[in-house]
Amino acid sequence: MKHIKNTFKLFKxxxxxxxxNPIATFLIIALMIIPSLYAWFNIKALWDPYANTGELPIAVxxxxxxxxxxxxxxxIGKEVLKNLHENKxxxxxxxxxxEELDKGVKSGKYFAGIYLPKDFSKDLLSFxxxxxVKPKIEYSINEKINxxxxxxxxxxxxxxxxxxTDQFTKTASSTLVTVFNDxxxxxxxxxxxxxxxxxxxLSTDENIEQIDKYTQEVVTLHDKMPELKxxxxxxxEFVDYLPQVDALGTKLVDLNDKMPTIKEQAKVILTLQxxxxxxxNAGKQLAMIDEDFASVEQTMTDGINEAKQGLxxxxxxxxxxxxxxxxxxxxxxxxxxxxxxxxxxxxxxPSITSCIKVTLESVQTIGSNVSAIAGQIEQLLTDNELTPDxxxxxxxxxxxxxxxxxxxxxxxxxxxxxxxxxQNSSGNQDLQPIIDSxxxxxxxxxxxxxxVDSIDADSISVDQLKAVLAEIESMAGxxxxxxxxxxxxxxxADVNDILTKLINTISTAQGLLSQAKQIDxxxxxxxxxxxxxxxxxxxxxxQAELPAIKQEVHDANxxxxxxxxxxxNGINKGADLYNNELPVIEEKLGLAASxxxxxxxxxxxxxxxxxxxxxxxxxDLESAxxxxxxxxxxxxxxxxxxxxxxxxxxxxxxxxxxLGQVIKLLKLDANAESDFFAKPVEVSEHKIYxxxxxxxxxxxxxxxxxxxxxxxxxxxxxxxxFYLDEKDRGKYSKREQFSARMLTFLVMGLAxxxxxxxxxYFVLGVDVRQPFYSVLFALLIAFTFMMMxxxxxxxxxxxxxxxxxxxxxxxxxxxxxxxPIQVSGKFFQFINPFLPFTHAVNLLRESAGGIYWPxxxxxxxxxxxxxxxxxxxxxxxxxxxxxxxxxxxxxSHESRIFH
Length: 899
Known about the structure:
Radius of gyration: 60 Å
Organism: Candidatus Enterococcus lemimoniae
Protein name: ABC-2 type transporter transmembrane domain-containing protein
Structural class: mainly alpha
Main location: membrane
Subcellular location: Membrane
Distance between the termini: 36 Å
Largest sheet: 4 strands, mixed
Strand content: under 5%
Membrane topology: Multi-pass membrane protein
Strand order of the largest sheet: 4-1-5-6
Number of strands: 6
């Protein structure tokens, strides 16, 4: 309560000071009235801006020549000038020439000029000839003279255009009705012709859908014209490719000639069909191998361990051999030592025979290796050429193959050496046939290696490589056949038998010492050691490849057995294709070849001749289609509608209309009928929330604007600081001083609102539907605006004044006062709802035209909330911001520019 009491004491002190000072009193009264003058002058100036348009000079000149229609002279330009003499809406100036008109507009003597050309009447009546030409009115305007005058002049030109249209409609309809009158008198004598026309119209209407389809086909064909032209261009390009077509035709004939050979080669599919049971059995065997592969891996591991154990034994025997030889002729000791060596050799015998078997079996893989390499080389030759990268790959492939052949040959030679030593130790020739076969096999492998090494991958041609590849495959086949002829098991058995006998001989060395001495045991052991070591290397190589082989076997099993049905079906389908479709293909290929030989030359000549004709006629065809499409698109809908309406009228007329009545209708008064055609409808206008004049309509905008200007103006003259003597400063808080001065500002705002609204109504005579609410709404708006401006200036000083001016500028542009906000830019449309000015103008408009309370309450609530928020913020923040604002103001005062 003390705060309120102190506030009103300071408020009273404010007004006492004002009335004690005459100058202050004068300024207060002036600041109450001056903003109202701003509104009153603008409202009065815009009271009726179109009232004096009769003084706006518009030059008019007609060069129109009369046109003949139905035996009458029609001069519409003359009628237009006659009507304009009676038109007082604009200041029409009738000049004597086109030059005078143009000069007057350029000089600014006339705001605008209207010129009717020579053929104006003729063009206007061109619809009667079927070749319609729209008449033109030349309208020129000098837009730099004034911003509004061009719009008023354009309105006059539009009015003139409407007037001419009205005159034309009257003239045309009057003429047509007169013609109908003449026709009416001749109907009786033309009933037969009328009946024929009627039947024709009805028949056409009944078949209109079929006709419509034809028109759509024309449109479709027209739309496809670009596509047809593109295809024609491609067809023209095709002629350039005829030599290639000739070449393809030649290949087609060659293919037909080779058809018997192709058919014989394709016959292999029948063989595959016979082998289906074997393929299915192979699938089962492959599945068994896949399932048992783990045991194969284990067997391989056992074989390698066994071979390594045998190699260890042989090495032990070799280590003991020098001691054995030192014994010399000491038979007893020789027998004892050789017996130990023989026992160890007996233990290594299974490994030795196993290694011989492995070496021979590895030789037999040469054929499959060659097949694999040949397949890889054939893949390189699929496009019948070798790129640099493919030649590099070929070179690497041949080198690897050559190295493999060298290792195979070395293994064979090592095996031959061992078998020779074993045979020499045994003293017989049992192994000689096998040794000869192995020597022959070594020779074949050497020849194959030499042939592979002779290939120059960098320069060899594709044809040469194919020939060499066939030669290599033949040599590999001989090698595989030779290796396959060796009975590996028999060789192993013979070696095992010889070694057993040799060991027995060594074991019984006491009785056969001289025979034992004849055995070159060291050489035998060395060759055996080399063979076993070589076999271990081969086995370990195979062991390293086992995981990949296992995966390949598994994949092959999945591929074969997983798709067995597909494979079988494919073979059967291929066989069916061979038996049933291939003969048809052969027949059709024969027909095609016959066509190429017999008919194609003539067709080729026809194509070239036809294309020449089409290219010559295409422009004419395109032009005709364009015209037909234009007719269908522009005129056909109206023709179809008119035809349908005519048919419906005839059908209805046959039931409801008497021809006598029709004749009577055609004889009606032409003038009355033409007037009806010119203005068939009268518009009844209903104004909602009517406002008497433009000044009254502009009053809400300028009233709201003057209230904001009054608040800004008063804040620029009056200070927001409350001056107190030293003895009184401690009695009142800063909030109390702020609130008291705020009341003074608000009283000024309310006074400004009362003066401007009462002056609008009583001084200017503004048309206001709800004057009482107009005053109340203005008081609310003044209260809100003054509250906003006072708080901004009190808190922020000159910065607050600047903010108030910025809001004023934005309000003029974005408040939607004089023009709808929808015609403003996107930025102003965006800020429009956030401007207090927008809701102030809307609220004053409600009282001006008639209140629609939902809209009014919305504006009242928004403005009330703005006033409350600014009041609360000002009272709360002022004690904290006031000192900072003063410091800021003091700094600006030091510039000697700002007060």
